[in-house]
Amino acid sequence: MQRPAFERDQRLALFADMLLIRAFEDRVAKLAHEQGRLPGMQITCHGQEAVAAGVVRALTPEDVIVTNHRSHGHLLARGVDPNALMAEIMGKRDGLNRGKSGTLHMADPSRNVLMTSTVVGAAPLLAVGAAFAQRYRNERAATCVFFGDGAAAEGSVHEAMNLAGVWKLPVLFVCESNCWAGAQAHKEHCPIGRIADRAASYGMTGEVVDGNDVEAVHEAALDLLERRRAGEGPALLECRTYRMHGHGEHDPQHYVDKAELAAWAARDPIGRYAEVLLREGLVASAAEMDGLRSRAAAVVDAAVAFADASPYPPPEEALEHVYVNPIAREV
């Protein structure tokens, strides 16, 4: 299929998303190694920015996102306020979820980011519920769920895909196949090379795309999502990419072959797309490119300043925004 001609604004928006995600997570990675700065495990999507930007930019406001522990990129591409996101990662009161979710359980219902689940393999099950609700209400919308190739080995993912196939639910399963499941290489936990080959077992479409080519990801997602909204049932999109950092910032990934890491670094999605934009004249010069990077860095600087200035939530808020009827106020 011939690739569509994306407009200049579309292409620059995809690039801006990737730059912001990288700048944001570069700062998170740095802060994670400063004593007392960030609570909990910090898990980033370094190297996978094209998947977040390409897929999320293909969603409509009515579409639902269900994501996992590697969620910062998905939320930023969806338009979640970087200030609120950074404050939430710091556990602050002005955070996206008032400091209660931290980095691993964030949600923004106002943007249809319904939930983040750090339980490996749980997100697809939750997405099936959201997609069932969309079909029950006769909505022209889809649910998009992100998970990794390690999660694809979980029984819960099989159950979710099987039920979505049986009920023909409007859900797009996006596998960010990043070559690692914790410290296990793909070949150590998966007997087949392509996760998308499993799609036929569930009666759904399965496609593979270069997850480091943001326009290829975007094109595939646009097509698959529109067909889900049109009632064709579920689909599986496997984005072949690479996890450039350890499982979390606590993980120095000594188990990764340095030559392999260097080979994938040469395929960095941001560097590749920067070359395309410069070659085709969408960005006029290296100086203009530096300006785009500086703009993303300034957004992150402001987010850190905002989060640092935000107070921690007081103890008396512990049960607020947790239950529909707070325990202390039940009648």
Put the structure in a nutshell.
The protein has 331 residues and is an alpha/beta fold. It is 41% helix and 11% strand.
Description of the structure:
The chain is an alpha/beta fold and 331 residues long. It has one domain: Rossmann fold (3-Layer(aba) Sandwich), CATH 3.40.50. It has 11 helices and 8 strands. A 6-stranded parallel β-sheet has the order 2-1-3-4-8-7, with helices on both faces. A two-stranded antiparallel ribbon has the order 5-6. Strand 5 and strand 6 form a beta hairpin. Helix 1 (8-32) packs across helix 2 (49-56) and helix 1 runs antiparallel to helix 10 (269-279). The model has no long low-confidence stretch (mean pLDDT 94).
Main sheet: strand order: 2-1-3-4-8-7
CATH top level class name: Alpha Beta
Beta content comes to 5-15%
Query: In the CATH hierarchy, what is the architecture at level 2?
Result: 3-Layer(aba) Sandwich
Overall 3D shape: globular
- Mind telling me the C-alpha Rg? 20 Å
Count the domains.
Answer: 1
Low-confidence stretches: none
Helix content: 40-55%
Q: Find the count of extended strands (DSSP E, 2+ residues).
A: 8
Order of helices and strands: HHEHHEHEHEEEHEHEHHH
Whole-number mean pLDDT: 94
Counting H and I runs of at least 4 residues, what is the number of helices? 11
CATH homologous superfamily classification: Thiamin diphosphate (ThDP)-binding fold, Pyr/PP domains
CATH topology: Rossmann fold
Alpha-carbon distance between the two ends? 61 Å
